[in-house]
Each structure stands twice: as C-alpha cells, then as structure tokens.
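In response to a reviewer's request, we include the raw inputs and outputs for one of the modeled complexes. The four entities were modeled together in a single run.
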Amino acid sequence: MKIKLFYFAKVREMVGIDQEEVDVESDIKTLAELIAFLKLRGSQWQAIFDMSSSFRMAINQELAEASCKINANDEVAFFPPITGG
Amino acid sequence: MKIKLFYFAKVREMVGIDQEEVDVESDIKTLAELIAFLKLRGSQWQAIFDMSSSFRMAINQELAEASCKINANDEVAFFPPITGG
Amino acid sequence: MIMSVYVQQDLFDLQSITQQLKKLHNSGASVTFEGYVRDFDLGDDKLEMLELEHYPGMTEKALLNIESLAMNRWHLDDVYIVHRYGKLKVGEPIVGIVVFAKHRKEAFDACHFIIDFLKTDAPFWKKEITNHQSYWVDAKKIDDGKWN
Amino acid sequence: MIMSVYVQQDLFDLQSITQQLKKLHNSGASVTFEGYVRDFDLGDDKLEMLELEHYPGMTEKALLNIESLAMNRWHLDDVYIVHRYGKLKVGEPIVGIVVFAKHRKEAFDACHFIIDFLKTDAPFWKKEITNHQSYWVDAKKIDDGKWN
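The model returned the following structure tokens for the whole complex.
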C-alpha cells in the first residue's frame, strides 16, 4: 500500500529529503511497524528513530502515537518536538 | 482644625456639593467621628452615612476605614463603591 | 522598569502604544487588555452612553500603586495603563492595559491582576444614560458580570 | 461565533485586526497576546535572525482545533490567531492572538490557554541564526523559559 511521508526541521535535514512516497507491505499496520521498516534503510535512519525524545509523528496532519494504525494513502510526518509560538 | 471634604458620583448628588472646607473641633480624631459630625447636618446626610454599603472613604487620596485617624489639612473624600474599568 | 498611567477623555490607540513600547525592550511577550462599553437593551431601555466620573489625583495615585504592586510581584519590562472618563459611547474602549515581560505567563498574570485590582481600587464611577433615563451603576451589578 | 487562523510570512498588525473585529461584536473585553523574537548574546554568539519552518496544512488544522477547544470551553465572541513562518528578525512579532468575550476572565483564560496549547500542538520549528552559526532550538530550551 502507498503512503506519503513528510519530514520537517532537524529530522528533514538528517534524512536529507522533505517528502517521498513509499509502497509498503500490507502487514505494516501501525506507525511502529512503519518505523521498523524505515530503520532498515541504514544507520542515519536508525539514529533518528532510536532517540524517542527527538521526534514526533502525525498521521493525516494530526499528532499520533507509535501504536496508531496506518492505512493506504495516509500522509505520515516525522518531525522534532514543536518549538513554535 | 481645617479639613477638605470631597464628594463624588451618587454621594455628590445626594449631598448637593462636590467639595467644601470644614473647621472641626480637635476632638474629632477619626473618620467615624467626622461622619458623626456630618450626620448632624440633617436627614439627607444621615441617610447617606447610615447605609454603610453605599459609600467608601479616602484620606489624602488613599482608601480608608472608619477607624482611620484624620489630621489638620487632610483631604477626606466620600464616594460610592467603585465601578470603573 | 517603566511605569506610566494616563487618565483622559480622549480615545486611545493601544497598538501604537504597544509598538512604541516594544522598541524599548527585549521582551518575549506582551499581553494587552481592553475593556469596552457594552450595549444592552432591556425592553424599551436602550443604553446610549456611559458617563464616567473619577477622582482626579487619587485616580493617578491608585493606578501607579497598582502598577507598583504588579512590578514587585512579577518580572516585567513595562506596564502601561490608560483609563478614560467623561462621556463614552456604546462600543468605545474604557480602559487599556499593556504589559511587557520576558515570559508570557508573567505578562498574563500581571495584566489580569491589574484589571481586577483597578476595578476595586481606582476611583471611577459609571453612570448609564439610556434613551429614557440615567442612573449610577451599582457595584453589585458589576460583580454579577453585567460589565466586563 | 467566528474563528480565523492565518499562517503567513508577512508582519501583522494586531490592533487594526482588533479594531475591525470589535465592530462585529458587543464584547466587554478583548485580550491580546503577542510573542516576539527575543535578542540574546552569549559571549560572541549574537542572535541575528530566527527561521521558522512549519507543516503547511497541519498548521492551519492544529490552530483551528485549538480555537475550537477554546470556543467549547469558554463563552467567547471571537478568536483570531496569526502565526508567522520564514525568516524573522530580532524584535519582530512571531505570533498574535486576539480573544473577544463578554467578560474579562474568559478572555484572559482563553487567550492564555491558546498560546500554551499552540506551543505544544502547532507544528512550528525554530532555527536560530547567530553571527557565527545556525541551529535548531530544543523544546527543552523553551521549557526552561529562554523563549516567551
């Protein structure tokens, strides 16, 4: 199933891209499973996702937890803790 | 001793004057004693000062209680509860 | 630390004040309060105007005292209070408060404190003028929330 | 009940907004919050600019959600939020919030709630650009009160 991925701020700089579309196996059902899949890409990706304090997630533009379900055509985003305002 | 008196808002309208200077005996030492003196002026004055919820006082432009001391040349003011802001 | 109070009949422009004060400070936050003459309509009785009387001299003293209390209690960069008197039309501003601080919580707390304190300690009295009559506003009515 | 959020690069003029909104309502009070880029100077390192990145789409959604939460919790006449992104110079405003209500306490509480919530839920990220370097601001630094 196809999922759109967005990266922002320091996370964007670390992964080196701002957005992409991935086609993942349908046994990837949660954000946690998506993260495990992305960590296979290499040490930089592992470094980001192993620091749980360093990133936050959103599904379809709403803040989400690792246990949240993902579906085909979802928009998933990874970014650092918010520092606006 | 001489004391300046000021009246504001509804109290001013009830007594019919906005300011005056009175010369009182030096045995009038507190606001309460000054009020007793003013009440001798008649029923309108009694009516104002008998309604304790209807007026507030200041000595030299600071909020004051009936027990507060007054001195020669003080500025004393009587007015309704504050409704500003 | 700067304190300023203005008691005036004229309208005031809180934002041009805020912008001028901002230039003087390295503040992280400003909180502004503005209170207005609220319209009401009780059957035939329609508010047309408010007349504010005050105690010249004591008013300025009371407002400066409130500013001092706030300045002593919180770390503030600047406090500005402006309060009108005389005849005010429905919808017009009555009172304006601007507080600058490094941090937002201090600015909020101080600004809220100032307007609460002002309502009990600054010698202003409101007279309502409707199309039929005019009368002094009760302090009780204010506690009941008829006013801001 | 009106809600509006603006996410923009340009400067904003909170008072002209406040004055326009005032005309629409019979409010007793408005409370305005403005957050600024604060100067700092750590030895040689002097802040020159802030760069704010955000998540277009989610930002507007998050701000509207915060407005809804505030509207459901308090009786408000109007809420307006404007947040900037891009390059911001020292002293410039970052965020502005205007709340109108019949009563002052509701206006204060709602405005304070909105800025607190915005700081954890609206997807903005600050990068500090000094005369020597540039780096992303930690959320921790914000909790420590370095920012407003």
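As requested, we also summarize the result in words. Strands of chain D lie at 2-8, 29-36, 41-42, 45-54, 78-84, 86-89, 93-101, 124-130, 134-136. Chain D touches chain C through 34 residues (CB under 8 Å).
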